[in-house]
Amino acid sequence: HKKGFIFDLDGVIVDTAKYHFMAWKQLSKDLGISFSEAQNEQLKGVSRVKSLEKILAWGNKTISDEMFENLMAKKNEEYLSYIAKMDASEILPEVESVLVFLKEGNQKIALGSASKNARTILSKVKLLHYFEAIVDGTNVKNAKPDPEVFLLASEAIKINPEDCIVFEDSIAGIQAANTAGMLSIGIGNEKVLHEADFVFQNFSKMPNGFLMSLINN
Ligand code: B16
Ligand code: MG
């Protein structure tokens, strides 16, 4: 059977959340707003625009549209300076062996991410060549939990949604996969991701034969 395997990026393939955190923290500091790791948690899977809106709301700040654009550009510049130093050592456990297994099994692989920097990051960590389609923040109009990102990915790899499997670390992403009619696999905390069909702390906790059973189902 040919299935479509759709991967989220941040939190599933690499932990770029720590770099988003550093960049948002600096921006908040410049604005005199406090910003905690718990707040950063709430920005996972959330677009750049929505993230800045949330930070400003937490700090009770209103700013001009021009200033908003400037801050977004500044945040991304700092974020990209961290990304520039990334290499394959930052790939999360067992991610590459899962990609190799799927590729060798002739399965379709796509990316479904909110990030506008997805291609840059995948190429930095040398995983770009595994992906037949990349749907990211540059293609998508409606953010997760809207299913658009995953539906576009399933179209791009020509696999029906019911034959697609999504790997996600955010609640919004799991909801998006469920709404798209796909099998949702949470990567992370099972208490947080309880709406997923399956949850594993990371790919190395996935039992032997699990991927094979998804392909054969
Ligand atoms: P960028 P994902 C998301 O990636 C991140 O989780 C989220 O924190 C970030 O704000 C968003 O991408 C946009 O990223 O600023 O690079 O366009 O988890 O959907 O892969
Ligand atoms: Mg994510």
Automatic annotation (TrEMBL):
<dbReference type="InterPro" id="IPR036412">
    <property type="entry name" value="HAD-like_sf"/>
</dbReference>
<dbReference type="InterPro" id="IPR023214">
    <property type="entry name" value="HAD_sf"/>
</dbReference>
<feature type="binding site">
    <location>
        <position position="24"/>
    </location>
    <ligand>
        <name>substrate</name>
    </ligand>
</feature>
<feature type="binding site">
    <location>
        <position position="169"/>
    </location>
    <ligand>
        <name>Mg(2+)</name>
    </ligand>
</feature>
<dbReference type="GO" id="GO:0050308">
    <property type="term" value="F:sugar-phosphatase activity"/>
</dbReference>
<dbReference type="InterPro" id="IPR051806">
    <property type="entry name" value="HAD-like_SPP"/>
</dbReference>
<dbReference type="Pfam" id="PF00702">
    <property type="entry name" value="Hydrolase"/>
</dbReference>
<feature type="site" description="Important for catalytic activity and assists the phosphoryl transfer reaction to Asp8 by balancing charge and orienting the reacting groups">
    <location>
        <position position="144"/>
    </location>
</feature>
<feature type="binding site">
    <location>
        <position position="144"/>
    </location>
    <ligand>
        <name>substrate</name>
    </ligand>
</feature>
<feature type="binding site">
    <location>
        <begin position="8"/>
        <end position="10"/>
    </location>
    <ligand>
        <name>substrate</name>
    </ligand>
</feature>
<feature type="binding site">
    <location>
        <begin position="43"/>
        <end position="48"/>
    </location>
    <ligand>
        <name>substrate</name>
    </ligand>
</feature>
<feature type="site" description="Important for catalytic activity and assists the phosphoryl transfer reaction to Asp8 by balancing charge and orienting the reacting groups">
    <location>
        <position position="113"/>
    </location>
</feature>
<dbReference type="InterPro" id="IPR023198">
    <property type="entry name" value="PGP-like_dom2"/>
</dbReference>
<dbReference type="InterPro" id="IPR010976">
    <property type="entry name" value="B-phosphoglucomutase_hydrolase"/>
</dbReference>
<dbReference type="GO" id="GO:0005975">
    <property type="term" value="P:carbohydrate metabolic process"/>
</dbReference>
<feature type="active site" description="Nucleophile">
    <location>
        <position position="8"/>
    </location>
</feature>
<protein>
    <submittedName>
        <fullName>Beta-phosphoglucomutase</fullName>
    </submittedName>
</protein>
<feature type="active site" description="Proton donor/acceptor">
    <location>
        <position position="10"/>
    </location>
</feature>
<keyword id="KW-0479">Metal-binding</keyword>
<keyword id="KW-0460">Magnesium</keyword>
<feature type="binding site">
    <location>
        <position position="10"/>
    </location>
    <ligand>
        <name>Mg(2+)</name>
    </ligand>
</feature>
<comment type="similarity">
    <text>Belongs to the HAD-like hydrolase superfamily. CbbY/CbbZ/Gph/YieH family.</text>
</comment>
<feature type="binding site">
    <location>
        <position position="75"/>
    </location>
    <ligand>
        <name>substrate</name>
    </ligand>
</feature>
<feature type="binding site">
    <location>
        <position position="51"/>
    </location>
    <ligand>
        <name>substrate</name>
    </ligand>
</feature>
<dbReference type="InterPro" id="IPR006439">
    <property type="entry name" value="HAD-SF_hydro_IA"/>
</dbReference>
<feature type="binding site">
    <location>
        <position position="8"/>
    </location>
    <ligand>
        <name>Mg(2+)</name>
    </ligand>
</feature>
<dbReference type="GO" id="GO:0008801">
    <property type="term" value="F:beta-phosphoglucomutase activity"/>
</dbReference>
<dbReference type="InterPro" id="IPR010972">
    <property type="entry name" value="Beta-PGM"/>
</dbReference>
<feature type="binding site">
    <location>
        <begin position="113"/>
        <end position="117"/>
    </location>
    <ligand>
        <name>substrate</name>
    </ligand>
</feature>
<dbReference type="GO" id="GO:0000287">
    <property type="term" value="F:magnesium ion binding"/>
</dbReference>
<feature type="binding site">
    <location>
        <position position="168"/>
    </location>
    <ligand>
        <name>Mg(2+)</name>
    </ligand>
</feature>
